[in-house]
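Example (one chain per record):
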Amino acid sequence: MNADLASLLLALGIFAVGFISIGPNILAIIGTSMERGRKSGVELALGVGIGSGIWASLTVAGLTALIAAYAHAITLLKILGALYLIWLAYKAFRSAATPNGKVAARSAKGNKLLLQGLTIQLTNPKAALHWIAIVGVGLGPDAPLWVGLSLVISCTLMSVLGHLVYAITFSTQPVVEFYRQSRRWIEAGLGVFFSFAAYKLATYRS
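Predicted structure:
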């Protein structure tokens, strides 16, 4: 397989699996869908998804220029990305050890939920680290333009659709109950995946 395509697929895999790991943004979507209904959850999810697409565009554009000017910058990106993935692994394992009763999903308040979702995502400093990890995997110093464009377009679509799936599915009680019963096993599996991804990122193209 072409090295650029392999890097792109690995980056998309890390991004996709990240949707299974429940963070503050997804908890807000879940809580809003459960308490205020599907329509409100979808509106908030659209804002979060669009915000993620903006992060993708800004990060890929900025880091592509940095890598083009300083080829050795990819090493720093690998280190930062690997450290972030290790932190995600730690968080997933810690969540797996947390009883279900201590994991709370809070509903968003007020109106203009799309704007709230957009603001939540754009002001989240963890999003920058998340994208550094993804771009560190997906873009090498000689990556062609199509790789960066594919990364932005694919991740934006996946973000919008992924957050919408949470809004729609968590407005139904059976899904909520299934997740509550399976959450700790899911988080443990994510801890293993993120540990493996950190290793792959730290050693990729070395």
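Caption: DSSP finds eight helices and no strands in the chain.
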